[in-house]
Amino acid sequence: MNTDRTRPAGRRDRTRPGTVPARRTPHRPRPPLRPHQWFAERLLAVLSGQRPVHWMLGHTIGEAYDQLAELAPASPLGVGCRRPVVRACHGTQPATGVVEAFASIATGERVRAMAFRLEQGPDLRWRCAAVDLGGERLPAVR
């Protein structure tokens, strides 16, 4: 049977009625963020002025909330017209239930350092126990 004669005028593909096209493979879902990566994003939102400090109330313990309340009004990570992003975030676990992490934050060509400590409570939730911004402002490496 010649398929050229049975195809409707103007149709160029070779599939026949009733055939099922091949399925596309779905995109892999993004793996869940680790606690220090999740906190880096949240801390960045507060310290860049995108979110209010009280957004972190249930996610901080000890002096961390006071540190955020002191740092946030100046929006130290919200410099320039570009939205800051977390370029890299790494953490170490010096003891069970403790993560000490650092992140590099880029705003355009500027890069800042942010360090923080997370502690896991008896309810197994992670909370920020300390925040520190530091380092000299350096141009971003491309």
Structural features, described:
This protein is of the alpha+beta class and 142 residues long. Helix content is 18%, strand content 32%. It contains three helices and four strands; from the N terminus they run αααββββ. It has helices at 3-6, 35-47, 64-71; strands spanning 85-95, 98-107, 110-120, 126-139. A four-stranded antiparallel β-sheet has the order 1-2-3-4. It is elongated, with a radius of gyration of 25 Å. The model is unreliable at 136-142 (pLDDT under 50).
Question: Helix and strand layout, with pairings?
Answer:
Blueprint (H helix, E strand, L loop, with lengths): L2 H4 L28 H13 L16 H8 L13 E11 L2 E10 L2 E11 L5 E14 L3
Antiparallel strand pairs: 1-2, 2-3, 3-4
Q: Descriptors for this entry?
A:
142 residues, alpha+beta, 3 helices, 4 strands, 18% helix, elongated, disordered C terminus
The arrangement of helices and strands along the chain is HHHEEEE
> In one word, what is the shape?
elongated
Q: Please, how many helices?
A: 3
Q: What fraction of the residues are assigned to beta strands by DSSP?
A: 25-35%
The level of helicity is 10-25%
Tally the beta strands. Answer: 4
**What's the Cα radius of gyration?**
25 Å
Uncertain residue ranges: 136-142
C-alpha termini separation? 60 Å
Largest sheet: 4 strands, antiparallel
Decide which structural class fits the backbone. Answer: alpha+beta
Overall average residue pLDDT: 84
Strand order of the largest sheet: 1-2-3-4
Q: What kind of oligomer do you see?
A: single chain
